[in-house]
Amino acid sequence: xxxxxxxxxxxxxxxxxxxxxxxxxxxxxxxxxxxxxxxxxxxxxxxxxxxxxxxxxxxxxxxxxxxxxxxxxxxxxxxxxxxxxxxxxxxxxxxxxxxxxxxxxxxxxxxxxxxxxxxxxxxxxxxxxxxxxxxxxxxxxxxxxxxxxxxxxxxxxxxxxxxxxxxxxxxxxxxxxxxxxxxxxxxxxxxxxxxxxxxxxxxxxxxxxxxxxxxxxxxxxxxxxxxxxxxxxxxxxxxxxxxxxxxxxxxxxxxxxxxxxxxxxxxxxxxxxxxxxxxxxxxxxxxxxxxxxxxxxxxxxxxxxxxxxxxxxxxxxxxxxxxxxxxxxxxxxxxxxxxxxxxxxxxxxxxxxxxxxxxxxx
Length: 362
Known about the structure:
With 362 residues, the protein is α/β, with parallel strands linked by helices. It is built from eight helices and 18 strands. It is 25% helix and 25% strand.
């Protein structure tokens, strides 16, 4: 059996993975059909609303059905929102055929390796939120008002959540790593200055990579005032990585959608693919309403996770989440619709920019 340690969400051709991980190719006598991979817990952030957009609270694990590539999955952990948590108390009996995490694999930086039962009991408290602020020359006239709106949002977040503040123009600036210290984050906001061109997609991709190793609800809130005119990566790459790492993207654009239809469409696609939302807020009051909506959404998300059942598919895996019971069919679900199996190397930020220390990430 081959133990391949390069996986976070597993899967490229074996020869390429051996090259990435520095491991030798399997010997000829080994059975290539038995590939043990380090498949981690798949986590879903799920919003449930009625037809008017009101959030539905009080649902239980048995109210949800999850399939991956039409294979039924068993919920391993469950929690509702930031304030009222509901956790499964007992884990299901281990499946001998399940793709379990490699016991010899090293955990991601800042994380502790856990068994399924330990993961289930730990639950989720608060969210990890990355604020990504457009400081390009597009933002020049609204700079102070934007800082005020972001600062108000930071102060309004629940105490259990951690917040990081990043800004971008042509390059990404990681001003404040994840912290519970609201004063420190607001100080990072106030210290920003206007820059030049906007490389939103480059910066957003790097932010998704920073969020990728984290457990629990993780979201990126982008505040943008203009199109991207300096990136080397397309928005589709950002959307796919966000889906594959379970990172929700919310985007607040201060430009009307009809003023820049190309960027507006890209913002809509990226946010929707990740299970988030895009907002187009032309006024300061509109920005406040958008931030309030994001805060409410984060506070009402159900967090469900599962360890994938054996699945030969090493590419894109499609996820379907449904509500069980006729009385619940009237409600609507918003979440990501799948993920691609990714090697650890795919989450390296060094391919675009040198990565500075994130000592306080956890």
